[in-house]
Specification:
Largest sheet: 7 strands, mixed
Shape: globular
Oligomer: single chain
Radius of gyration: 16 Å
Bound molecules: uridine 5'-triphosphate
Strand order of the largest sheet: 5-4-1-6-10-11-9
C-alpha cells in the first residue's frame, strides 16, 4: 500500500537553510511504517531565492519556475541522502520514473516536474500514478482553515471536509491578495477531488500527527474525503 507525502519546502529549507533534523525525523517515521512511500519535496526559501535570481537577470516566469524546480530537486536529493538504502537512489524526473523507482525501493522521492505548477499538484499526480491509498500534506500549518490563521485569530479550523468544500475554499482564497495563498493549490484540489484520494493536512512540527495521518488514524489536522 502506497502513501504519498507532500513535504512543504519551508520545512526542509527555511530561513536558516537545510533542516537535516526534520529530514531525519521523516526517515524515522517512514522506517517504522509498513507502507511504501512516494515523497514530493517542496522548494522553500531555496526555490524563492533561485527564482528571484533568474528574474533579476531578466528571465521569464518560465525560467524562474525552471530554477525553482531545480531547488525542489536539490531538496529531494538531500532527503534521498538521509534515507540511504530505504530510497530509490535517484530523484525521479517524472511520474513514470517514479513508478519504476517505487517497484525497486520502499521510498521514491521527486521534486517538481514542469513549470507552471507546484509540488502540491505533483504530489496528487504521483498519488494517482501509484494508486496511493492516501496523501499526507505536511506543512507549517496544522490544519485547513477558512482564512489564514496567522493573520486572522478568528479563523475557523476544519476537522473534516469533503472534496466539494475543499475546491470551494481553494477558489474563494484564489481571489485574495498575492502572498496569502491557500494551503493547497487549486489544481491540486481539483485533481484530488477527481480521484477521491483521501488527503490529510498536518503540521510538520507535530510528528505524532504525521505518524497518525500516514496510518489513517485520528489526528489534530484536517481530513479530506467523501
Ligand atoms: P513549491 O511546491 O515548493 O511551491 O515549489 P510553493 O507552493 O510556492 O511553496 P511553499 O510550499 O509555499 O513554500 C516551488 C516553486 O517551484 C516551481 C514553482 O515556481 C513553485 O512556486 N515549480 C514546482 C514548478 O514550476 N513546477 C513544479 O512541478 C513544482
Amino acid at each position: 500500500v502506497y502513501v504519498v507525502l507532500s513535504l512543504g519546502g519551508s520545512l526542509i529549507y527555511g530561513e536558516k537553510g537545510l533542516d537535516r533534523k526534520f529530514l531525519e525525523s521523516i526517515k524515522q517515521i517512514i522506517e517504522e511504517s509498513d507502507h511504501s512511500f512516494g515523497v514530493v519535496t517542496g522548494g522553500g526559501k531555496k526555490a524563492r531565492d533561485y527564482a528571484e535570481e533568474v528574474r533579476k537577470k531578466g528571465g521569464s516566469e518560465f525560467d524562474a519556475d525552471v530554477a525553482a524546480i531545480r531547488a525542489t530537486k536539490e531538496n529531494a536529493k538531500e532527503l534521498i541522502n538521509v534515507l540511504g538504502s530505504l530510497a530509490y537512489e535517484k530523484v525521479a524526473d517524472d511520474f513514470n520514473e517514479a513508478r519504476e523507482g517505487a517497484k525497486k525501493s520502499k521510498v521514491v522521492v521527486m521534486g517538481g516536474t514542469i513549470p507552471g505548477i507546484t509540488t502540491d499538484t505533483d504530489a496528487v499526480l504521483l498519488a494517482e500514478a501509484l494508486h496511493a491509498k492516501r496523501l499526507v500534506n505536511i506543512s507549517n500549518v496544522d490544519a485547513i482553515y477558512d482564512s489564514d490563521p496567522r493573520k486572522n485569530p478568528m479563523a475557523k479550523r476544519f476537522k473534516r471536509l469533503n472534496y466539494e468544500q475543499l475546491v470551494k475554499l481553494a477558489i474563494e482564497s484564489d481571489t485574495r491578495r498575492a502572498g496569502e495563498h491557500f494551503i493547497f493549490d487549486i489544481l491540486a484540489c481539483k485533481l484530488i477531488s477527481r480521484s477521491k484520494i483521501e488527503a490529510h493536512f498536518v503540521s510538520g512540527k507535530r510528528l505524532e500527527d504525521v505518524k497518525a495521518a500516514i496510518e489513517g488514524m485520528p489526528h489534530s489536522g484536517t481530513v479530506v474525503s467523501d
